[in-house]
Amino acid sequence: MLANPSFHGRPLQLVPTVCNELSSAYALPLQLHSRSYQSLASSTLGNRTKRRRRSISRRFTQFSIRASEEPQHVSFLAADGAGVQSSPFSIRIPVGDRHLTVETGLIGRQASGAVTVRDGETVIYTTVCLSDVPSEPSDFFPLSVHYQERFSAAGRTSGGFFKREGRTKDHEVLICRLIDRPLRPTMLKGFYHETQVLSWVLSYDGLHPPDALAVTAAGIAMALSEVPNSEVIAGVRIGLIGDKFIVNPTVQEMENSKLDLLLAGTKNAILMIEGYCDFLPEDKLLEAVEVGQDAVQGICKEVEALVQKCGKPKMFDAIRLPPKELYKLVEEIAGSELVEVLQIKNKIPRRKALSSLEEYVISILSEKGYISTMEAFGSTKTMPDLLEEDEDEEVVVDGEVDVHIKPVAARKTVPLLFSEVDVKLVFKEVTSKFLRKRIVERGKRSDGRNPQEIRSIDACCGLLPRAHGSALFTRGETQSLAVVTLGDKQMAQKIDNLVDEDEYKRFYLQYSFPPSCVGEVGRVGAPSRREIGHGMLAERALEPILPPEDDFPYTVRVESTITESNGSSSMASVCGGCLALQDAGVPVKCSIAGIAMGMVLDTKEFGGDGTPLILSDILGSEDASGDMDFKVAGNDVGITAFQMDIKVGGITLPIMKQALLQAKDGRKHILAEMSKCSPPPSRKLSKYAPLIHIMKVKPEKINLIIGSGGKKVKSIIEETGVEAIETQDDGVVKITAKDLSSLEKSKAIISNLTMVPTVGDIYRNCEIKSIAPYGVFVEIVPGREGLCHISELSANWLAKAEDAFKVGDRLDVKLIEINDKGQLRLSRRALLPDAETEKQSIKPRSGSLSNDNVVSLKTRDKGKPKKVATVSKDGSASESEEPLKEKTVLIEVSSPAKEAAKRLVSPEKDGSDKLQPKQKSGSNISSKNGEAKVV
């Protein structure tokens, strides 16, 4: 029948859909008005005697009718068939504390549906288009979604060599999935026209995130298009600041939020949720979902009013479903065998048995002549030629149109025929029906478990000897090999985003799903959208248990390779990743686990009481045949990550509450099994992991470490053999090394560069670096030089410095002055035997000081204790002091301790008897009230 028999003068386009007997795939485009339609029919069929009156729509049941232009609110010029749209139409929808502006009819008027949605100064443009010719029937709706963030939206261009946007970035892929997942449940079965959703960020203000806005824009564009979806969808983000839930919070508000929930649904039910939180209880999560559902309902009601005014007619007549007779035939042929096959516990044997049974059904139907070899959709019957004239023609009168047709009664009927594609689709639906019926009626699943039971769990750590941390987690037929790698900031993942700021991730999880994990042959290459999505879910689930960067300054990478898969491989990645982190010595806050929940909604159909049946730890077949896939990660206290997809029209809050409580019990069981891991996690750094040491110096000393153009820091790396030296503007220095010896060398050099000399300090065995007419330059510690004036070189008069000294000579000097520019003035004469300062006796030091502290000594009288630093030929420095005789010495740690200058302290008489300070890898240095503290 016609999609809309009342044309209202609008031009219509006729394209062929499913024909019973016609196998041609070409289109027969006709642009017809009601009067031009009358002329065509009259001229073609002539003026014959009218025998019977029928509806004109019967003649064209093999065509689907699509409106070529906008519906009734659009004006058309009929003279040349070109349509001219009216002015754009826009509405404002209240959401949270502000409004969304929705506009259609201005941009993208040739698309089936096009809309711009604005929140603040963030603008999303989304289009929906569909192909004119249907594709081959499939159990997977032919929908593709593409989302792109234009750098021009934020007034930027790409930083790469190519200045145009290229490959889709990971976070764009994640938003594509957020758009795709709520759209699919609303698509009606039997519609095979390929549909494409394109979404662009045209403007971004840095304040209003575009992802939730893109979900809403896609739902509105789909509702305005000709695609026959069931209901309008919308999406919102929910944040939790303090005890208050915020709808569509800003970027700044999300920085203080304990929850990041993105929810999409219709005005009646929830279709998709995804979010991350910091051990949020189940009841709080349900409150957030309720707030989000109320917001979605308000948006959907406003959009429905917009669709009534601007929407295009839906192509319901293009839907082609397999005939009901085919379902009965398949059940009769394979019913008893299906019951036995679905009881096979292992996945691969069950899959092969189902495939063999499907081929058996096709062969039986072919032998009986029920399967047609023609490439047509649906059932096939003999159809008359529409334009063939015959003596027994009938004339049907419909208004002013005369059409001649052949009498149907005179035609012989042909047995019903089915396409092979239809048989495969029906066989899959029948299999799903039998699986669901078995679970509801018998309370047993394919592997023999009851609905609440968890599969057997096995785990082991330390599987890979050279990896920094590794774990193999097995749950039933799902297995994840998780590997942890530790590194410095250079290993961090850089994120290229719209805002003009460099963003680095110090923790990331990469998930891979090779075809071998399901026993198949397939493509191996760049990660798929599914792999990126599952990896991000596991990553965000593990992130809350990581220690802060100040306590553990490593970049952490987790790789999860799925080696076996039969349901919830992303949740296996959470469990395996947690164990691998512990095996790598990462001080995680606690252990967490993940579980996937399923559901059979229509239980009355299979003999149940109508209550939805929730399944714990679902298999792959239960995911495909069931109505829900709800993944929940966390511990026995709260939730860290969740993701829910629905295959039906949506679920309600009571069902979600039941699923969350059942998931909590499942997590407790899994955590108990993880604690039995054998061998257990080592919980200490691997000997192959890099060493990272943190030092704190004065911020103004950072340039001394970097040097001109980075020359100094590069020379330190080359000289000591460390992997990297990272400096920060606040004075924090991070040294990454493979071994302790190179780490200590670099620490000593940096300490000497940033040390704060004190007038009166003595430096022994120092090398002369250069000679000038007015004195010599002496290196008191590596990288620090001072001038010893010619008058301070000797007790006697010297005409020229080179008369007594040459470059490379070593001598003892004393620091006697530091000028305003920080330049050091040294004296050798002050240390000669006839000098007054040398008459003081030397008293041993009372205790050793930490190598990370700079110590200043203050006396209550005139004199000051002398610090003695000895520099050996290899460049290492040692230090001792010459305290005053009969003076009270007050030793206190002053604020320069934050510079972490390393000095090796030794007695003055014997420079070889050095006191090696204790080293602590990765120690932090902090200060409070001017005192140094090694943490």
Automatic annotation (TrEMBL):
Q: What class of enzyme is it?
A: transferase
Q: Name one Pfam family in it.
A: RNase_PH_C
Q: Where is this region: Disordered?
A: 835-935
EC number(s) on record? 2.7.7.8
PROSITE patterns recorded:
KH_TYPE_1 (PS50084), S1 (PS50126)
Q: Which SUPFAM superfamilies does the protein's record reference? A: Eukaryotic type KH-domain (KH-domain type I) (SSF54791), Nucleic acid-binding proteins (SSF50249), Polynucleotide phosphorylase/guanosine pentaphosphate synthase (PNPase/GPSI), domain 3 (SSF46915), Ribonuclease PH domain 2-like (SSF55666), Ribosomal protein S5 domain 2-like (SSF54211)
Compositionally biased intervals (Polar residues): 847-856, 918-929
- Superkingdom of the source? Eukaryota
Basic and acidic residues bias spans: 899-916
Acyltransferase is among the record's keywords: no
Record-linked InterPro entries: ExoRNase_PH_dom1 (IPR001247), ExoRNase_PH_dom2 (IPR015847), ExoRNase_PH_dom2_sf (IPR036345), KH_dom (IPR004087), KH_dom_type_1 (IPR004088), KH_dom_type_1_sf (IPR036612), NA-bd_OB-fold (IPR012340), PNPase (IPR012162)
Q: Where does the record place the S1 motif domain?
A: 760-829
Q: Which keywords accompany this UniProt record?
A: Nucleotidyltransferase, RNA-binding, Transferase
Q: Which PANTHER family does the annotation name? A: POLYRIBONUCLEOTIDE NUCLEOTIDYLTRANSFERASE, POLYRIBONUCLEOTIDE NUCLEOTIDYLTRANSFERASE 1, MITOCHONDRIAL
The similarity comment for this entry is: Belongs to the polyribonucleotide nucleotidyltransferase family.
Name assigned to this protein: polyribonucleotide nucleotidyltransferase
Q: Which organism is it from?
A: Datura stramonium (Jimsonweed)
